[in-house]
Design goal:
about 400 residues; alpha/beta; 8-stranded mixed beta sheet; 14 strands; about 40% helix; about 20% strand
């Protein structure tokens, strides 16, 4: 089954085209990115398997135009990989927020669209764009089934005591204010794949998954189910991130507002876009730039890196206690997969768990590798995430089941 996977941002659209034979056998036919949607001049970057990369600048007024540009690239006689749009059998979408009622991926219909729209208050930067992508496909490919795969769905197995906030209960009832968690598609893929890779039975395991990138989150996965995660009502909570502050004393928000006269919107922008590693260091939100600055003696860059390391260690300890032990700790995401120094520093603080770290293996780069010695009581591993594959799998199963 040929499936187009779309990940729509407010001004961008990432995509992959996969030919799914079954869960684990597939061909990646093409992938690409449409940038600067809604701006004066957009850009389409496209690469089909076995062909040269294609790049084109053009006005891209909205997501409908962006979807058409993707389909044009896929059909291009020189750079494309499809002879006709009839080859596309389904479209899978990454959707950020499904609210409290979505526990799994869903075939898109009017009811699902309404849920995505209703959750736009909870995911204002992503849900409207996700919905635009769905409606753009409906306009361009009206007969093709679509599936929504929700970031929040994997975390819906959290018990109430883990997701409820100690605020007046009426705000949970009126507005759904609670912890939801994000990066769920990644945590779901990585926990299952890492268990198989490490020789564990997922249904009888305690796994901590560390998705570390410009946005970062950690999840406690017990017997294949999420029981806690660091992100909250929004992706702002939890770890210090590239430009997001992560968990802070809530009184800081009102204190700065009173002192600086900032509006709620200005505070939101500051905490989401001007804080985190960038805010502490003043250097960059990119871990590579931060590490270079720290190596050159930049004191604030060193402080930012130490804070991130401290928080990861703290959450690993907390989730180990929550699950009464841990069998496997997994690193994924741009930082988790590539920053050997950070992984080593974390491991150095986990000797109390019986971690026997393999420093030599840690210096290598691979999509999947063990980071601990065979005698280690707790295993550590790197597993490259593959959210698009999860979306394609879910899309395939839901569409085939509907057809049957």
């Amino acid at each position: 089954m040929i499936i187009l996977v779309l990940n729509c941002g407010s001004s961008s659209l990432k995509y992959q085209l996969l030919d799914m034979k079954n869960n684990d056998v597939y061909d990646l036919l093409a992938k690409g990115l449409v940038e600067r949607i809604g701006m004066d001049m957009g850009c389409v970057k496209h690469k089909a398997d076995g062909k040269d990369q294609y790049m084109k600048e053009m006005p891209i007024a909205d997501h409908t135009v962006a979807v058409k540009a993707v389909l044009d690239a896929l059909l291009d006689p020189t750079y494309g990989c499809l002879s006709t749009l009839e080859d596309v059998e389904a479209v899978g979408h990454r959707v950020l927020h499904g609210g409290p009622t979505i526990f799994s991926s869903k075939l898109v219909d009017e009811q699902v669209e309404a849920i995505i729209d209703k959750c736009s208050d909870l995911g204002p930067l992503h849900n409207p764009a996700n919905l635009k992508g769905i409606r753009a496909v409906k306009e361009v490919l009206p007969e093709v089934p679509q599936v929504a795969v929700f970031d929040t769905a994997f975390h819906q197995t959290m018990p109430a005591y883990a997701y409820i906030y100690a605020l007046p209960y009426e705000y949970y009832e009126k507005y759904g204010i609670r912890k939801y968690g994000f990066h769920g598609t990644s945590h779901r893929y990585v926990s299952a794949r890492a268990a198989a890779f490490a020789g564990l039975d997922l249904s009888n395991s305690r796994i901590i998954t560390c998705h570390l990138g410009n946005g970062s989150s950690i999840s406690a996965v017990e017997n294949g189910k999420c029981i806690d995660t660091t992100m909250g009502l929004t992706p702002l909570d939890g770890l210090t991130m590239g430009t997001r502050c992560g968990s802070i004393d809530p009184a800081v928000v009102t204190w700065i507002q009173m002192k600086e006269g900032k509006t709620p919107q200005e505070m939101d922008t500051m905490m989401n876009k001007k804080s985190g590693l960038l805010g502490i260091s003043g250097v960059s939100s990119d871990m590579r730039d931060m590490s270079a600055a720290a190596n050159e003696g930049n004191v604030r860059a060193k402080l930012a890196l130490k804070k991130l390391t401290h928080e990861i260690i703290k959450y690993i300890g907390a989730y180990t206690a929550e699950m009464n032990g841990v069998d496997l700790i997994v690193f994924t995401g741009g930082i988790g997969e590539n920053n050997a120094r950070l992984r080593r520093r974390i491991a150095e603080n986990l000797a109390y768990l019986g971690v026997k770290f393999d420093c030599e293996a840690n210096e290598h780069k691979a999509d999947e590798m063990m980071l601990t010695l065979p005698e280690s009581k707790v295993k550590m591993a790197v597993v490259a995430t593959n959210e698009e594959l999860v979306i394609a799998r879910d899309t395939m199963h839901i569409v085939l089941n509907e057809e049957e």
